[in-house]
Structure formats: structure tokens, C-alpha cells
Amino acid sequence: MKLAVFDFDSTLMDGETIDFFAEELGFKDEVVAITERAMAGELDFYASLVERVALLKGLPYEKVEEICKTLPMMNGAQEVVSGLKERGYKIICFSGGFRSATEPACKALGIDADFSNFLHAENGILTGAVGGEMMYSDAKGDMIVRLQNLLGISEKDTLVVGDGANDLSMFKHAAIKIAFCAKPVLREAATHCIDVKDLREILKIV
After folding, report:
1. Name one GO molecular function term (predicted).
2. Which CATH class is domain 2-205?
């Protein structure tokens, strides 16, 4: 058995989930600017996540679910999942984003499990609060080690794919580290870089 771990936003999905939410409220430009700086490693991930989610206060959770059902998957997402499964990989999604987005997408793609954060809502309305195990810059690294221990999979049999600074911590625990249309900070830590929006390119590497 081998392990493949994918980031979600701008990796499995073509865009940033929180930007789609912010657009609904008219805050997209502000949120995009914070997201860009966080993914480039210029801001603490936890602080930037809390700041961005606070701007979502008042958004109906029903609208969150509606948006999440129509998020655009990255070109080649379905094919790379199928191709890696044929090669003996367990496929996991780690996201500093939200379960409301990762759960339906991963179910549709046939991904084995997803780990992400939860948007807090009261009476069907977002409160602007967020919780979960993927809120910190080192969360993905911590989780991948736990999964490797649980599944008995070594670093040499682990592949990771991401695009931003919060993927750095999981890159430390994999033999194949793929920077996908990534920020410079992640490209420097990668063993492979893919610069076209087509996840099928990964199948040429493995």
C-alpha cells in the first residue's frame, strides 16, 4: 500500500472555496488578497484563516452548501484519482479549508478520506467562527505522520501534492513532493513541479 495526499483548494479544486463564499457577500477582493499572502507564506496561516472566516459572518449555511455542490474540480482530478488507485495508492485530502467543500467533492472523486475544518453556524447562519484540525501551518505534517503510522506506510511510499505555504509541513514527510501550479515557497521544497492545470501530469511522475 502507498499513500497519496492532496491539498484541496487550487489543487483538487480549481480555485479557493473561501473566495466563492466571499463573493456572495461582496468581500471577494479583500479575502483573495489575504489568501494570496497566506499561501505565499507571508502571513501566519491560522491568523489569516480566522481573519478571512470572520468576514463570512451572516452567510446562510444553505448558501454554503449550494456553492460547495458546484465547485469546479481541477482538470484531470477524476483521472488522477483513478490512476493512482490502480497503482495501489490510498488517497487522502487535507484542506486548510472546509468540510462542507471537501466532503462532497471527495465522495464524488472516490477519495478515501478527507480532513479539513468546520464553519460554525447558529440557526443556519455562519457566525464567523471556524474550528478543526487543519487550522495551523504545521497541521498537515502532523496529520500525515499519524496516518503513516496508522496505515504502516513509510515516507518513501508517500506522495504529496499541494500549491501553497501551508503544504510545506507535509512535504517534509514524503519522497515524492509535487508542487502544482505552486507558490515559490513550495516549489523550492518540491521534488517535482507541474506548471499546467492538469492533474494527469502526476501519472507521468509515478
Report:
1. L-phosphoserine phosphatase activity
2. alpha beta
